[in-house]
Model the fold of this input.
Amino acid sequence: MRSVVLAMVLAFTVAVGVSFAGDAAKGEALFNGAGKCKVCHKTTEAKLVGPGLAGATKNNDDAFLKEWISDSQGTWAKGGPAIEAIQKRNNKVGKPKTAMAPGKLTPAEVDDVIAYLHTL
Ligand code: HEC
Done:
């Protein structure tokens, strides 16, 4: 009985801990390579073209990040509280378009990049 409870607790912990499907190592390679994120973003809090992305997963939840990284222009155009927060953080209130280039990553690659953002 005790081992069953232990197994259940363990399974639950793993399920919660790995609530995210992405692979951070692949995400890092995409961030620096095909995703072109590095062209505009540092992985610290320092600004480049866009804001430094340390803390990006605290400021934005994963579902929103997935939408944003997949289609920054479309997500910006749709608006909403998460977009308003980005506009305020980056002094872009009232701008019709984001300066973030549209992404060309597959949905699985976006998950990998988000997993990597969680390590920053
Ligand atoms: C051409 C430059 C450019 C590229 C390439 C780019 N971004 Fe951005 N990104 C920006 C800018 C600029 C902003 C801030 C919004 C604005 O000013 O329009 C931003 C905002 C963000 C934010 C929100 C930051 C916040 O304040 O919460 C995240 C997260 C993000 N980018 C991730 C990425 C990822 C991941 C990639 C690669 C797949 C990427 N960006 C590629 C320019 C870029």
Q: What stands out?
A: The pocket of heme C is lined by residues 35-37, 39-41, 49-51, 53, 56, 59-60, 65, 69, 86, 89-90, 92, 98-101, 103, 105, 113 (CB under 6 Å). The chain has a mean pLDDT of 89.
